[in-house]
């Protein structure tokens, strides 16, 4: 279900480090947020690509009309055991996602494939408190992962968001404590700011658009998952505010406490409006301001910017959206970006979308246009198949190429 306490990690920057996990880093992170309806109480401050969202079957708009009961019908004992644990307050999933993309570009490689194995869940330990976790293994089957296929072909474009070769990652491990009346939420642990930063109904690269132009705004230099601080609250019956502080140098390959010594921070504040908090990412308008410190090792300069987004669900089926952003600095993908599009929600929990993006980048002449269209075919709560098409006109990194077409096929298997 798409809701105010949902969320995913885009991680469009390649990550360095070993595959070990330093669990000493999983401490003293605080997040406060506005709380939606009672059906959403495990989510915390998150968006549609989060652990909370991935634990919910369907889209929450209508009674799901699934085509099949697969894989529950072939492993009833396994799912019955999971159901019993859920009744006791512990929910979890394993899932596997795979993405293959093919390009017609003359430059670079023409094919890219990658997979993501995830183990994630939530333990409702007390009436108002819960623990959320997510561990991932991201691996490529080709020399270039889909996340970087556009760059390899000469387009300044992240064409396969999250589908990289980053290895084992700890992307979530945080405690959530909620106010009894739902006015705020307190979180501490390892979080991903893209779970709640500038999100809307079609933000998830696991179930919706694949190009970063239609995920978290590409003018925002979002950090990788790590230690941080966030706060949010309802302001009256229709407005909300969200603020965050996060480790600008975070590396989920090897979490650490370096933010306490180097002090390099990513900061954001978002002010938004929604007619109903249980539909905040379906009917929403918000303005986001952000700033990222320069890296202490001088590998990253200071940058900052502003983003605007509005999306409104019509007849529980159609989601028109408009998103724009501008930034100053060199770390964000684009200096200016505007995206418009339309999402679709089907009764069988199928989903579809088409989006158009215009972008300019710091230090590069010209502008780049991107179109993406996808259709998510939902066989069951445990199996989704999503073909997609991306068309990039006037790729900024290869002026000799007039356009690039990328065909994609994404699958998700949940068990």
How does this structure look, described?
By secondary structure, this protein is mainly beta. Helices cover 6% and strands 41% of the residues. The chain has 4 helices and 17 strands. It has a 17-stranded mixed sheet. Strand 3 (111-123) and strand 4 (129-140) form a beta hairpin. The longest helix is centred in the N-terminal third of the chain and has 12 residues, at 76-87. The radius of gyration is 20 Å and the shape is globular. The two termini are 18 Å apart. 50% of the residues are buried. The model is unreliable at 1-10 and 12-44 (pLDDT under 50).
For the biggest sheet, the summary is: 17 strands, mixed
N- to C-terminal distance: 18 Å
Strand portion, in percent?
35-45%
What is the helix tally?
4
Fraction in helix = under 10%
Key features?
415 residues, mainly beta, 4 helices, 6% helix, disordered N terminus
Write the layout of secondary structure elements.
Layout: E1 30-31, H1 51-54, H2 76-87, E2 90-103, E3 111-123, E4 129-140, H3 149-152, E5 167-178, E6 185-190, E7 228-235, E8 239-247, H4 259-262, E9 265-273, E10 284-292, E11 303-311, E12 318-328, E13 336-345, E14 351-360, E15 368-380, E16 383-393, E17 403-414
What is shown here, in short?
With 415 residues, the chain is mostly beta strands.
């Amino acid at each position: 279900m798409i809701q105010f306490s949902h969320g995913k990690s885009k991680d469009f920057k390649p990550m360095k480090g070993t595959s070990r996990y330093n669990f000493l880093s999983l401490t003293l992170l605080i997040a406060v947020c506005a709380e939606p309806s009672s059906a959403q109480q495990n989510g915390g401050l998150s968006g549609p690509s989060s652990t909370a969202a991935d634990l919910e079957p369907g889209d929450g708009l209508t009674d799901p009309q699934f085509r099949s009961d697969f894989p529950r019908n072939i492993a009833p004992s396994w799912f019955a055991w999971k159901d019993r644990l859920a009744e006791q307050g512990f929910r979890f999933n394993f899932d596997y996602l795979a993405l293959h993309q093919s390009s017609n570009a003359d430059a670079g490689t023409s094919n890219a494939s990658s997979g993501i194995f995830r183990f994630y869940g939530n333990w409702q330990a007390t009436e108002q408190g819960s623990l959320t976790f997510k561990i991932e293994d991201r691996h490529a089957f080709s020399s270039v992962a889909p996340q970087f296929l556009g760059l390899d072909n000469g387009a300044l474009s992240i064409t396969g968001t999250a589908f990289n070769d980053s290895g084992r990652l700890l992307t979530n491990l945080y405690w959530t404590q909620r106010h009894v009346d739902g006015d705020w939420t307190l979180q501490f642990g390892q979080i991903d700011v893209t779970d709640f930063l500038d999100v809307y109904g079609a933000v998830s690269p696991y179930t919706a658009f694949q190009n970063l132009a239609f995920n978290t705004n590409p003018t925002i230099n979002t950090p990788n998952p790590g230690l941080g601080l966030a706060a949010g609250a309802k302001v009256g019956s229709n407005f909300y505010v969200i603020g965050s502080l996060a480790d600008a140098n975070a590396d989920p390959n090897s979490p650490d406490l370096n933010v306490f010594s180097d002090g390099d921070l990513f900061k954001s504040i978002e002010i938004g409006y929604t007619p109903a908090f249980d539909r905040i990412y379906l009917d929403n308008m918000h303005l986001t301001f952000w700033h990222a410190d320069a890296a202490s090792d001088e590998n990253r300069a200071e940058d900052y910017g502003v983003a605007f987004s509005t999306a409104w669900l019509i007849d529980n089926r159609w989601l028109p959206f408009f998103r724009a952003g501008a930034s100053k600095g060199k770390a964000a993908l684009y200096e200016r970006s505007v995206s418009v599009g339309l999402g679709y929600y089907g009764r069988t929990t199928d989903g579809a979308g088409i989006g158009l993006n215009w972008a300019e980048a710091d230090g590069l002449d010209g502008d780049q246009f991107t179109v993406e269209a996808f259709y998510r075919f939902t066989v069951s709560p445990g199996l989704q198949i999503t073909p997609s098409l991306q068309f990039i006109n006037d790729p900024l990194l290869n002026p000799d190429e007039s356009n690039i077409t990328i065909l994609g096929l994404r699958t998700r298997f949940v068990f």
